[in-house]
Amino acid sequence: MANQKTEKELKKVESELKQDEKEIKRLRFSLRAIVGLILIVAAIGGAIFAYLLVTSKRVSIDKTTIHAPEIDLAPTVPGVLEDMLVKAGDTVAANQVVARVGDELIKTKVSGIVTKADASVGQTYDPGQTVVAMIDPSELRAVGQIDENKGLDRIQVGDYAVFTVDAFGSKQYSGVVDSVSPEAESGSVVFTISDQRQEQVFDVKVRFDQNAYPELKDGMSARLLVYPQ
Fold it and tell me: Max alpha carbon distance in the chain (Å)?
């Protein structure tokens, strides 16, 4: 009888130990789940904080245009336009003849794209008067105009920038601030409503890889975001 009682007690103890082991395993799993959840929440919180930090520092410039300086080709002496050899949109090489005024051949200095060539043969031109206009695509920039009190003091050459072009919807293009104009644009003056105080407007130019973005053309409207370092 004593032996049977002892066996029953041992089995009872073994059963309790097994239950305890199951409970310990359950608690371990729950603890791991809690730790994992804490890590996930921390990661999400860190990402949100980083996003808010970045977005709070960025400078938005809505008035932006894809632009390259215009190159004017003109005669050095007065004469009559005898030949017009190109049209707007043509690609031209360096030293290519694009027109003839009198006996003078009008040549390009660099390769590029013709933007204006609408003169009529027989028209008289003075020295320096533009016959053909063109741009050098390598000089294309995203040029944003920013009011002096809208974050201009935070923008520096070398800052990373992202911009979208109206013609291509939400597609993002990236670049680097190439220059910040040292003086306000002439004629670009904004008056505040409160006290009619003048606020100057400055150009911020962003350089980008033209080979990577061949679809970008001179004159396209854009929106620019600059991320100060």
Answer: 134
Calculate what percentage of the chain has a pLDDT beyond 90: 63
Domains 59-67+139-227 and 70-137 alike in fold? no
How far from 197 is each of 36, 70, 184, 191, 192, CA to CA, in Å? 56, 33, 15, 5, 6
Angle at 206 between CA 201 and CA 210, to 5 degrees: 140
pLDDT value for 52: 34
- Residue 40 has which token pair? 């996930």
| Whether 106 contacts 74, CB under 8 Å | yes
Predicted pLDDT of residue 184: 82
Instruction: Classify residue 181 by its DSSP letter.
Output: -
Domain 70-137 in this protein, CATH class: mainly beta
CB 208 within 8 A of CB 142: yes
Distance of CA 129 to the CA centre of its chain: 36
**AA letter at 207:** R
Structure letter (DSSP) for residue 183: S
| Residue 161 identity (one-letter amino acid) | A
What's the Cα-to-Cα distance from 130 to each of 85, 94, 184, 213, rounded to whole Å? 15, 18, 27, 30
Options 2.40.30.170, 3.30.530.20, 3.40.720.10, 3.90.380.10; CATH for 59-67+139-227 is 2.40.30.170
Contact 105, 125 (CB under 8 A): no
How far is the C-alpha of 224 from the C-alpha of 109, rounded, in Å?
Answer: 32
Q: Give residue limits of the domains in the chain.
A: 1-57, 59-67+139-227, 70-137
Does residue 26 surpass a pLDDT of 90? Answer: no
